[in-house]
Amino acid sequence: MAILVVDDSRDDTQLLKVMLESAGYRDILIADSAESAYQVLGLKDPSQTTKVDLILLDVLMPAVNGIQVCRRIKSIDRLRDIPVIIVTVQSDPVDLQLAFAEGAIDYIRKPLIKVELLARALGFATQLPPRLRGLQCAGAIPFPCSRSSCFILSKNRSESDFT
Q1: Among candidate residues 57, 132, 131, the one with its CA nearest the CA of residue 98
Q2: Which domain holds residue 15?
Q3: For the segment 38-54, what is each residue's pLDDT rounded down to a tens digit?
Q4: Which end of the chain is more exposed for a tag (fewer CB within 10 A), N or C?
């Protein structure tokens, strides 16, 4: 599964990458701006598209903010179904409402908490229908549990795995 992290903060992108890699994800793409994200997604040249399964998108970026990036991604048919999760320090409900209106499916507040990142991000990365995502490992539905989803709720993990 390829995860695109879009954030102008090098510290935040590195933290996200480390958290995701610790959960077993190796295909993590980093974009430090909207333009860089557009390049990865093939907006300039569709023949140069990289397959992306999930986008973690910061709101506060120079030039083009994350809400505008989300709007542009969701306006393109071949990208429309990629889940976009907003990662932000913002707490203004208006900004969150705008992000959801533009197609974001969830948000995670900074400072990042590993267990929250994994539960939210990886819940949207499953192949289950949206209304069932995140329930399989809790035993609420009788679907086989994917390795990545079970990581989140594994009883064999220590508290340090989630902080």
Answers
A1: 57
A2: 3-162
A3: 999 999 888 888 899 99
A4: C
